[in-house]
Amino acid sequence: MRLGIALLVALFLGALAAHFLFEDRGYVLIDYRGYLIEMSVPALLFLIVLLYVAVRGVALLWRTPHRLGVTLAERRHRNAGRELTRGLMHIADGNWAKGERLLMRGARASDAPLIHYLMAARAAQQQGSPERRDEWLRIAYEATPDAEKAVLLTQAELQLETGEHAGALAAARRVLDREPEHPVALALAARASSAAGDRAALAALLPKLHRAQLAAAELEQLAAEGLEVPLADAELTSESLALRWGELPREIRRLPKVLAMRALALDRLGRGTDAERELRVALKRSWDPTLVDAYGKVRATDGAKQLKQAESWLRERPDDAALLIAAARLCMAHELWGKARSYLESSIAIDPAPEAYALYGNLLDRLGENERAALAFRSGLALVDGRALPVPALEPPAD
């Protein structure tokens, strides 16, 4: 619309100018340093237009190489983007080799070469080529030195997947040296330490482990693993336990497995009453089978009161299999064999578990019922091996 109006205006002005120019062509005289140039007005206008076109032509020719370079660069970038998209699609389909080739082909011209190289490293690993994977990671770092952290995290993740635990831990530690609370690096370092069986390295991460990018269940398991050796140390004292406990953040101290381990450590130090009290408070705050199991294993000075507490919980939770086992343990500690038997049989009826069968077998063996004890032990082993689906609960003896 605007172009059409402009053309109409130009035609009108041209026609108007031509009318006056043809009626009187005019006369132009230019005197410059003794040189005289004579021409008509139309000739002058023609020279001006010709000069303008020449200047524009020269400017266009001057800019052409730059424009051509920009156009070619844009085309390469578009092609690189298409190669990246196609490569990722092939990787998503499990076609690792073709995906790697496409990523490699578009990497140099890409605005984001790091993505190409890191994804190519993953593709190489999926093809069972750790050497090529490491080469892609090296190229990724050389191409984008500022992305060292991303390269190291990818390296740690990939090495962890292939069981290269020492390498994964080293890569994660390099990130932690610069950012001690980096959530992904903490998670990778903890997983690598756990997989390598390096409990000392895992224990060193505990003060910051709550900041790791971990699911709640995995965080709890790793924290428990990290505390397993120090809390089971034969030379553990109340002072060293308090020191170790004080180093842990509140988020770790409140984890059920960690609380249970502390309670059992207190019990081994002869502080069963303290252990019972801490477990009782924790269970009032949050009911958890791990804490219930630990409650049945610790021994407070007033064992009758502890048993009474467990039985009061049972009145509220009569179908809690873990609580029934804990109550049975406490009864066995006080040689209340009949109660213990009843609790164990109820637990097995509700939720057959190897631990319940083992305790039941020990109880029956103590009562001289050897055949039934052997059956209980076999039933528990069958559960462990997965050979019994389901294992029937043992029937109480006939009166």
Structural class: mainly alpha
Note the main sheet: 2 strands, antiparallel
Succession of helices and strands:
HEEHHHHHHHHHHHHHHHHHHH
Total number of helical segments? 20
Distance between the termini: 106 Å
Taken as a percent bin, the fraction of beta residues is under 5%
Which shape, going by the Cα principal axes?
A: elongated
- Average pLDDT figure: 83
Task: Give the strand line-up of the largest sheet.
Answer: 1-2
Oligomer type = single chain
pLDDT < 50 stretches: 69-73, 388-393
**Percentage of residues in helical conformation:** over 70%
Keywords:
399 residues, mainly alpha, two-stranded antiparallel ribbon, 76% helix, elongated
Give the secondary structure arrangement, pairings included.
Layout (H helix, E strand, L loop, with lengths): L1 H22 L4 E5 L2 E5 L1 H52 L3 H12 L5 H14 L3 H14 L4 H14 L3 H14 L4 H14 L2 H11 L6 H16 L6 H9 L3 H4 L2 H13 L3 H14 L3 H9 L5 H14 L4 H13 L3 H14 L3 H13 L3 H16 L14
Antiparallel strand pairs: 1-2
Helix pairs in contact: 2-3, 3-4, 4-5, 5-6, 6-7, 6-8, 7-8, 8-9, 9-10, 10-13, 13-14, 13-15, 14-15, 15-17, 16-17, 17-18, 18-19, 19-20
